[in-house]
Amino acid sequence: MGKSTTVGSRRLKIAFWGFVAPSVILFTIFFLVPLVLSIAFSFTDFDGWKTMNFIGLKNYINLFKDNNFWGALGRTFVYTLFSLPFKVIIPLLIAALLCSDRVVGKGFARTLVYIPVLLSSLVVGITINWMFSAEYGLVNYLITSLGGTRLEWALNPYLATFVISFASNWASTGFYMIIFIGGIKSISNDLYEAASIDGCTSTQTFLKITIPMLAPTTFLAVLLATVNLLKEYALVQGITQGGPGIKTVFIIQYIFDRGFNSMQYGYASAISFIVMIIFALIAYAQFKFSNGGGDN
Amino acid sequence: MKKVLIILALALLVVLPLTAGGNKEAKNPDTLRVLLSEEPSTGDAFTATLNKWAEETGKTLDIMVIPYDDQLTKFPLMARNNDLPDLIATTRLTRLYPEEFLDLTEYVNIDDFEEQAVMIIGQDYTTNKNYCLPYQFTITNVFYNKDAFEKAGITPPTVDDPWTLEEYRENAQILQEKGGVKYGMAMDNSRARYDNIMYMYGGSMVEKDGDSFKVAINGPGAIAALDMFVEWNNSVMPKAIWAGGTTDNPGDYFQNGDVGIYFSGTWNYNTFYQNIEGFEWGVIPSPVGPEGGSAILGGSGLAIPENAKNKELAIEFIKWFYNDTENFQYFLDRDKGLSSLKSVTYSPEDPQVVEDYKIMQAEVANVTEAFNVDESSSWRNYYDNEYRDALHQAVNGDMSAEKALTDFAEALSEKSGWPMAY
Fold first, then answer.
1. Cβ neighbours for B60, distance < 8 A, ≥ 6 positions apart
2. CB–CB of A245 and B238 under 8 A?
3. CATH 1.10.3720.10: does it fit domain A60-293?
4. Considering only alpha carbons, which residue of chain A is nearest residue B393?
5. Does ipTM exceed 0.85?
6. What is the pLDDT of residues B280-308, one digit of tens each?
7. Residue in B80, B97, B243 nearest the CB of A154
8. pTM surpassing 0.90?
9. Min distance A38 CA to chain B CA atoms (Å)
10. Are B348 and B266 in contact (CB under 8 A)?
11. What architecture does CATH give domain B19-131+298-355?
12. Is the Cβ pair A240, B246 closer than 8 Å?
């Protein structure tokens, strides 16, 4: 009896490590090792290839005196706060709509909304440029055709930020919609039947049943959307390249510029490390604030 | 558990051969791996020349494309992975990593080359070695929309009687009002194009200081130039380009007939010649500023990495390309640019091209000493995009020209260790 238990336990251990090992190996290679290297580089003047001298905390001291770093970080927060509600609310409303019994062609509509998720950021950038180009954009063409005045998408920093936000939302709505559809489908039908018997209107049902029951899903969507917005990079490069001036240079683009364009890998690593801590604190605060999306 | 192991083993069997066989071409001793900076368009002069060499010698080509800016990050990775191309078309790599490239003076006679081309493209001001041989030799110049000029009743300037900066500004305004174009002027979103204006005002990035340099980009000439440029952008230019908020190419605006005067360079001539059909266009002499004219030489060179697998093949191509002038002539006739070899010149048949070519060639005399000093300082090894960002911020109105340039000058001074001149 004891022997078979030992054999069973060993088999379980082997199975456990068999399943866990691929993740652990990949996590170590692609996350832990780069993280440790990045932290180590942040104490050097590494130029990406040949120069690497230990310079202590110099990069961190420079970072705290760097107005461009604070500017980029501030713009990233403003952009995230501005875009986050749209990132979550629009997919939620579309998901609710596409789960309704009264809507026809739901499968087709879901596919249509999801297609932009499949596009690369580069293609999204090209498409958005085609729509919002300063000179030959479709949107300005429509505005002027209707007798309006052209909007300076590329000159007004608010409009430029809006265009990036619009592109980001357009490209991700399908992804969050799928998450919300999964959440809505998991809500028990009994609750809706009870609400119906009690004479609740559709709006009341949505606000009093769907929204509260979706709390864990909403938390997940908010967390993912926040992190993705804070890390926005490819779209900015494809649409505004940080302009006008440097008004749409967000923090990841700033890190990229320092590291790859100015060959200041050490300094870029220091910024990355500080930014990682800030992002982790934001995620932690979200967990605490919403109790991880669970019941309070 | 067994199933999992079988699946993992099968996956490895599929993946391993793929990773091992990823670079078959590089192992072929008859294949020349060439790194270009942009996807060759139809009729591209250098690709046509490469193909001619391949046909004549029976060798094969493996062309890859990495833009100049990205080459700076990709090249170290390629070097570390021992996966270097055999021949590289580059603008900056040999300046940043000279020890990684072959000295090509052993294979060509450097006296056959135009001295300025070797100096500007080779960028080696301290040794007699040449790691980068010029092939595309370009100079800044100004294109104009002939139809718009005619419509606005403007007579274009000539080499003997060029316009001043003020005249350019005035005529751009007239073009915008009467010439049927949306913008009187446009300029490539490139630091080098703007710098011409700075040199015309007597500004410079640095000043010589014995064997070293002083940072001078916040001098009175440079500030006056940027102030004027900001005003141009607010009145007769598509401001979004130089405010940095768009990826639009002003060359497209010109080709679409929306711009009267376009500041660019000789590298666009062939493209315009092939593409523009809707209106007549030509070349006019660049303006003259308070301190004279200015033109900036540039271009691209060919380099061979020291550790390239087929570097002998690349050397063979270099000899074929430069030592047999017939082959360089073949390239130049298609490139329609300036020649970097003394004994080879471009002789166009189209009389209009002949006229335009004379004007472009005359720009060479406008290259300033300040530009040569700036180039010899290699200031871009310290900061480059930051200067462009400073110009963008001034044009966008985020800060004054003086503040933008002074902030940049201080940063450059700190990084380079050169003292401030102003």
1. B25, B28, B30, B31, B32, B54
2. no
3. yes
4. A245
5. no
6. 999 999 999 999 999 998 888 999 999 99
7. B243
8. no
9. 17
10. no
11. 3-Layer(aba) Sandwich (3.40)
12. yes
